[in-house]
Amino acid sequence: MDFNVLTLLIYGVFIAFACFISVCIVVIITTAPYPIIHRAKEEKCFINPVSGEKHNFPTLSDPHSVHLSVVVPAYNEEVRLPPMLDECLEYLQSRPTKFKYEVIVVSDGSTDKTAQVAREYTKKYGTDIVRVLELITNRGKGGAVRLGIQNSRGAAILFADADGATKFSDLSKLEASLNLLTGADYASNPEDVSGKAAIVCGSRAHLEQEAIASRSYFRTFLMYGFHFLVWFFAVRSLRDTQCGFKLLTRKAAKVCFASMHVERWAFDVELLYIAERLKIPISEIAVNWTEIEGSKVVPVWSWLQMGRDLFLIWLRYRIGAWKLADKSE
């Protein structure tokens, strides 16, 4: 009897191993090592709403021409977007006139008036300051951030959520950390910072106990489960990978997004996993954050999707199905 059980156990382990190897082979055969990004012609330009003229976006391969680019991914955000843009632009306008910046709103296949609302800001501030990238179909937050960043002009690039949950003036905290990581101030020496790789992540980790107190036991369990999966499969140097307030140098953005495949909620994890693998300096800075109604994250379903993506990120890089871009490029 014991012999039969042991035999079945051995066969079970062998079959499981064979299945895993088969899956790995299929993944390698069917997966492109680097992301393949398709864009419609209309998605490569922005509109001047005053003249009606279309202008081509620059690319990340071009030299920087402003100090800071702010990329705002937005899906059906006609209500939450205006307060965020008002706070963002008011803060940036308070800076010295020599500080050049732009805000790129990426309407991610929105079916409401997100793009029209954003273009009202273009009318007010001009196309040199506010530009709208309107995607034809919904790609996911990661896909929207990637395309916005690829069309940025900044020596440093911030991507910030459209809900305005993070106090925008906390950008100064991220900038101070970026200065330490790069050894230069991008406001006065953008050339020095643009060519160095570094990432600063806004963090809500200090608010964790407060969040636990206001959440159900089930949501708290899911939160801790997700944090464990992130630590186990991907990123171990940060406590909060999902805060939508991250500042990158132009080089870091170019290198990391050249490798990034995930276009949905788990894209932050892959971005930071790539940065860790390439030994790009990363810091985590506490920011002021307030939960805003209207979140697009469906607690159970979205976290299940992210859990699946975390495992696939680990597997695909581990078996060589996904490759990392050369940091020196």
Question: Brief description of this entry?
Answer:
Belongs to the glycosyltransferase 2 family. This protein has 329 residues and is an alpha/beta fold.
Query: How would you write the strand order of the largest sheet?
Result: 5-4-3-6-8-7-9
Shape-level CATH architecture of the largest domain: Alpha-Beta Complex
Tally of structural domains: 2
CATH superfamily of the largest domain: Spore Coat Polysaccharide Biosynthesis Protein SpsA, Chain A
Distance between the termini: 62 Å
Q: Supply the CATH class of the largest domain.
A: Alpha Beta
Task: Characterize the biggest β-sheet.
Answer: 7 strands, mixed
The total of helices stands at: 11
- Spans of at least 5 consecutive residues whose pLDDT stays below 50 are none
Tell me the helix content: 40-55%
Share in β-strands: 15-25%
Gyration radius (Cα, Å) is 21 Å
CATH topology of the largest domain: Spore Coat Polysaccharide Biosynthesis Protein SpsA, Chain A
